Automatic annotation (TrEMBL):
Provenance organism: Dentiscutata erythropus
Family, per entry: Belongs to the class-II aminoacyl-tRNA synthetase family. Phe-tRNA synthetase alpha subunit type 2 subfamily.
Protein name per its UniProtKB record: phenylalanine--tRNA ligase
Matches recorded under NCBIfam families: pheS
Residue span, Aminoacyl-transfer RNA synthetases class-II family profile domain: 334-410
Length: 436
């Protein structure tokens, strides 16, 4: 492929010799190949911009007929029917159809019918015999005409060859080019930036600078991409329903954390109505009357409370959603999820509390996990960060049992309760340890 500089030189020298280029499809590159019109457009644009104006060009749109790969092969080597005729020996015996197929393969099957239609061959028992002494391969001739001219004088021929998938109509774009007001055979290289050397030498005063193109596309900003962590555990949904943020975690609807002084509720839209129906029923039941070894909370669970949209108070809402998705899979596979993302609390801002902050969270789900696994993992987790003197003590979370609180406010952790996991559809043997 010719470079932009080579194409620019080709255009300028051709214009200098001929005055105009009526159609660039007639241009031939230095390697005697056709010029790529798309690459040529870049060269023309560069020569015609406002600060150069070396050439002017207009777009030419044409519909031309072009050969398919099979059509090009026939134009080079002959049609299927001609190959069938040529493969039949002269004489009354001809050739067995089975032998013809061994010689020509798929071509024998395709060309046989066309040869019969042209009355070039006849059948004699299981053999094919020549019916004429010689043939004219009109298909090949027609395809050669189309390849050289881009069309054919007979529309019926074009239609027939198109049905045989030997040619098709294509839109071809080329250009007519003429000299511009600043035409020259020499392309002056324009400076793009004022350099330190230019300032020192004073060259900037007489340099020919390239004009700014304020309509040109800029470099796409590198920011704003999703973090790779999102591929495993998408935590970028800040607005959440109370169902996933509270109810799915076996947190009762009368819990103080669900009050307006602890949670930001949305005004518009105010509610969410899309939930997994069967799972919703199981959550309602375990809250109201219990199940899975629990007596529940014994209150009248209301869907209206679960529908309320909030700014999520913890990323554990995402953990519950991920665990539910795992439960819907045919076969359980152990998983580890980890996230760092933003949460919101309607709290008084002071030295240790913010209305918006980032939360680190993780869950591990597998069969047979114990509290010892959680403590061992937490030791490793904090030791990696240089925190070595750890002490664990029990604490209460509505969705973990047993729970571990904090000696110094460092982290919270526990094992998710059966009342939370089993309504999702997880195997009773599956245990989930979590920390935040």
């Amino acid at each position: 492929m010719s470079t932009t500089e080579e194409l620019q030189t080709l255009v300028l020298t051709t214009l200098d010799a001929r005055g105009t280029i009526p159609n660039t499809k007639d241009l031939v590159a230095s390697d005697n190949k056709e010029v790529d019109q798309l690459a040529l457009l870049g060269a023309l644009k560069s020569l015609s911009i406002a600060d150069k104006e070396m050439v002017k060009y207009e777009t030419i749109e044409e519909e031309v007929w072009m050969l398919t790969d099979e059509g090009n092969e026939i134009a080079d080597k002959g049609s299927h029917e001609a190959k069938v005729f040529d493969a039949i020996p002269i004489g009354e015996e001809g050739i067995a159809i089975s032998a013809l197929r061994e010689i020509l393969g798929e071509t024998a099957k395709i060309g046989q019918g066309k040869a019969f239609k042209n009355k070039w061959v006849i059948k004699n028992g299981d053999n094919l015999v020549r019916a004429v002494d010689s043939i004219i391969d009109q298909t090949r001739i027609d395809l050669e005409v189309i390849r050289s001219t881009g069309t054919h004088s007979d529309p019926k021929v074009l239609s027939e060859l198109r049905k045989r998938k030997l040619c098709d109509k294509h839109k071809v774009i080329s250009y007519s080019v003429s000299k511009g007001p600043k035409f020259s055979l020499t392309i002056e290289k324009q400076a793009r930036d004022v350099t330190f050397e230019m300032l020192q030498s004073g060259e900037w005063k007489k340099a020919n600078f390239k004009k700014y193109n304020f309509d040109a596309l800029g470099i796409p900003p590198s920011g704003g991409h999703l973090h790779p962590l999102m591929k495993e555990m998408p935590t970028n949904k800040f607005v959440e329903s109370s169902f996933w943020n509270f109810d799915s975690l076996f947190q009762p609807q009368q819990h103080p954390a669900r009050d307006a002084h602890d949670t930001f509720f949305l005004k518009d839209p105010a509610i969410c109505t899309q939930f997994p129906t069967e799972y919703l029923k199981r959550v309602k039941e375990v809250h109201s009357v219990g199940g899975y070894g629990s007596t529940g909370y014994g209150y009248d669970w209301k869907i209206e409370e679960a529908q309320k949209l909030i700014l999520r108070t913890h990323t554990t809402a995402v953990s519950s959603f991920m665990l539910y998705n795992i439960a819907q899979q045919k076969e359980f596979k152990p998983v580890k999820y980890f996230s760092i993302d933003r949460v919101f609390r309607n709290e008084t801002v002071d030295a240790t509390h913010l209305a918006e902050f980032h939360q680190v969270e993780g869950v591990i789900a597998d069969k047979g996990l114990t509290l010892g696994d959680l403590i061992g993992f937490m030791n490793t987790f904090f030791n990696k960060m240089g925190v070595r003197n750890l002490r664990f003590k029990p604490a209460y979370n509505p969705y973990t049992e047993p729970s571990l609180g904090k000696w110094v406010e460092m982290g919270n952790s526990g094992m998710f309760r059966p009342e939370m996991l089993e309504p999702m559809g997880l195997d009773p043997e599956v245990r989930v340890i979590a920390w935040v």
